[in-house]
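> forwarded from #structure-qc
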């Protein structure tokens, strides 16, 4: 007997932990008040930073790995656990914004980029099940808004994590075989 997975119960990745780890790294390393884009809040005062998941999770393998374990202490019919796992990749756009005359936005991005190699950042990511894979070149994307120069810089950071779901099933303890034609009637 298999316990079927309810689609509403599937959470193959803890997105809150993922987002919290990314936010903690960027806001702490850059020193900027940092928001997630598209959250429907007013724009903060300059300078500030923003984050946006622009892709992912994208499974890095076409088929998920299947792991099987047995636990006799589980309820009857749920002794066998199947775990389906696949590494995945996210791309997060990280931007800094600053007004003219202040530190340029690229300074904040450089701080965040440098911190990706620190043990503190790597530990924060590890606790959340996240790893930094690579990052793009820094892009200076400043522009004039209402006749005022706005310093703006961006990097895209690729992060990896693990997609994981599980289900439980039981096993068949015996099978009865019966055939009057062959004269068979026994249990295996």
């Amino acid at each position: 007997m298999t316990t079927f997975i309810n689609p509403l119960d599937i959470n193959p990745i803890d997105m809150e932990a993922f987002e919290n780890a990314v936010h903690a790294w960027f806001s702490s390393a850059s020193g900027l008040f940092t928001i997630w884009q598209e959250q429907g809040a007013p724009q903060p005062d300059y300078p500030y930073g923003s984050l946006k998941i622009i892709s992912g999770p994208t499974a890095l393998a076409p088929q998920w790995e299947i792991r099987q374990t047995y636990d006799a202490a589980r309820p009857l019919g749920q002794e066998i656990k199947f775990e389906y796992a696949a590494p995945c990749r996210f791309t997060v756009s990280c931007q800094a914004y600053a007004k003219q005359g202040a530190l340029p936005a690229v300074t904040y991005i450089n701080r965040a980029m440098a911190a990706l190699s620190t043990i503190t950042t790597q530990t924060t990511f590890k606790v959340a099940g996240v790893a930094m894979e690579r990052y793009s070149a820094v892009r200076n994307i400043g522009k004039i808004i209402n006749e005022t120069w706005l310093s703006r810089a961006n990097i895209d950071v690729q992060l990896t994590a693990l997609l994981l779901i599980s289900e439980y099933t039981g096993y068949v303890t015996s099978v009865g075989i019966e055939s009057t034609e062959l004269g068979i009637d026994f249990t295996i």
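QC bot note: The beta strands are 33-36, 48-59, 65-70, 80-99, 131-135, 139-140, 143-145, 148-169, 176-179, 184-187. The chain has one domain: 7-187.
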